Amino acid sequence: MGGKKWRWGVILDAGSSGTRLHVYRWLDPERARHDASQDELRGLPKIVTKKKWTKKIRPGISTFGETAKEVGPAHLRELIDHALDVIPKDKVKDTPIFLMATAGMRLLPQSQQTALTHEVCSYLRQNTRFSLPDCDLHIQVIKGETEGLYGWIASNYLLGGFDHPEQHQHGKGHHTYGFLDMGGASAQIAFAPNSTEAQKHANDLKLLRLRNLNGSPAEHKVFTTTWLGFGVNQARESYVESLQELYTSKDAVELPDPCMPKLLRTTLDGTPVQKPKPGDLTLVGTGGFDECLKKTYPLLGKDKPCEDNPCLLNGQHVPAIDFDVNHFVGVSEYWHTTHGVFGDKGNKAYDFATYQRRVKDFCSQDWETIQSKVDVRKANDAKNAQEACFKASWLINVLHEGIGVPRIGIEHLPASGLNASKSAVESAKQKGFLDPFQAVDTIDGIEVSWTLGRMVLYAAGQIPPQSGDDRYPVGFGSNDAGPTPPDFQFAGSTWRPLGQGNATADDDDWDTTADDLLDKAKARSTSGLLLFLLMFLIVLYFFRKQDRRIHFYTRVSKLIRKMRRPGKGSGGGRVLSGLTNKFFGRPSATYERVLEEGDLNQFELGDVDSSDDNEYSDSSEGSGSQIGRSSGLATPKLNLGGGFDALMPSAAGSALGRSGLVVRTESRERLVPNMQMLGAGRRSRAGSPTRLKSPLTQEQ
């Protein structure tokens, strides 16, 4: 099969506060299917990413609404340069690039959205060689429903709900997890309703189709919706407007704000002030968290008319949620607001009573006391502390009053009748995913981001369907009858195989392996292992080029022959011969002659291949180098399939050694017909090819 054939993908998440680059890679489906176990064949491709492959810049792309021409050089160039530092040069033309804008862009007028997406496409096509065949598919402002669906894919992919449904039975035949996301401008929900609700609200669901490594389709029916304006920043603006309507009079210059710490004074947009200018309206914190909860509740829009029952927030229809089986993970602000200034950085289960107590304790303090506990030199820390009380009240209201998540620690949740193995249940309990809600940032070291879901969809689309039956393409659309609904959005990928590996591709594999090993050494932080791996990396770097390997072998071979000449002594020659035999495999004298006289481009060492199931973390926090659902230190293995034994085309005289490698046993006459004439008079038994043992046998 040759060396590793990596596929790569780039996604730019253009959010309201900034644009974030994500780079992903996965094995080419042909190679992945060749190496996969039967269990892996029934699952999705394994997507790999690393912390150092991501990069975020501020502000968001929506700030270029009136200056679209500047978005390329002033905003995208830095991100593209970072991506090109990660992706091998020879892979760029086969690497798809996506820019998908979310809530920030949705707030812009349609004319500005169109101008920006056209300019982004033009810039990428003119200044990069990334694969960009369809601008409408690759560069777009995605709907909130689509963002939620991608997040649902990412969560279930990382949790294992797709590949091992039998280990995630929540009861009533349900095995997937719900997804909650909250950003600065919008909030999303995505989940698979229980069977009763799915049948009742079939027209409200999305048909999602993936494809497993074995080519079999995997279908899911998912409900997803978005609430624009329900992100924390937009909600805060709405809240301040409500305070103005409540308190403003001709003589008012200060608005009491129970959602800010005591004695904190800010402008209406949240900028702290010591002495406001005469006539300026300011907010003054009162630190009353219970009152804050009451004043943020009306923002949920629970009093809005519901035209299609049931509804949750703002009069928008959502099928009834069965919290016996629907267990949700919350990302973005759900994570930051529950694990930020209020303490807990670990993946502990969300407990309403504990969380609310911590919030009250924090928000009842005056601002001076809070400032003494945060690093005021870091503007982000100070800003988070300033906004923490409002965000906490908003999250509590959205979760429990809006969506209806039971208050764990206060409200009783009926048993769900779990049907899962004891080990699977215990594992899930440790992560907190048997609770109705759990905030997460990473799962098994991978960030839970909707961008991962989009790339899973793309990678699944590269897998050939079973028996070439393409009636069930990868993508999503309305839950209509038939394999391909009219509004079906295709994954945008095909199963076109990559070309055969060449020297450049092999260099990519060596460089990739070296990079992975270095990251592992950093993660392990063991001095002995680090020293060994660094030495190994030096060797890999030196021999990553084919011509370097051949040149080195030729020089060593000549030196050995000189040291074997009569009168020169043979001790050093035997030592060097042993070293080269271990490193390159042991060729006979006939092989040496063929090497000297042949075309150097025919000869190449095998590839160093690292196991895909043994990725690792390159940081102590576990969010660095990552691969879904696996961990541990990869062990490189030497693939000798392209070694010197492969120089002779005939395999008639082959035999299997202990390690399953083919060992040549042809006679001297068969290898080189005239060898008997060239070696006439030589009687050494050691030089006879029929007496040679394989290098593996000799080392026993």
UniProtKB/TrEMBL annotation:
Residues 606-618 have a biased composition (Acidic residues). Keywords: ATP-binding, Hydrolase, Membrane, Nucleotide-binding, Transmembrane, Transmembrane helix. The chain crosses the membrane at residues 526-543. GO terms for cellular component: Golgi apparatus; membrane. GO terms for biological process: CTP metabolic process; UDP catabolic process. The active site is at E147. Residues 605-632, 667-700 are annotated as: Disordered. GO terms for molecular function: ATP binding; GDP phosphatase activity; ribonucleoside triphosphate phosphatase activity; UDP phosphatase activity. ATP binds at G184, A185, S186, A187, Q188. Pfam families: GDA1_CD39. PANTHER family: ADENOSINE/GUANOSINE DIPHOSPHATASE (PTHR11782), NUCLEOSIDE-DIPHOSPHATASE MIG-23 (PTHR11782:SF121). Belongs to the GDA1/CD39 NTPase family. This is Nucleoside phosphatase family-domain-containing protein. It comes from Podospora appendiculata.
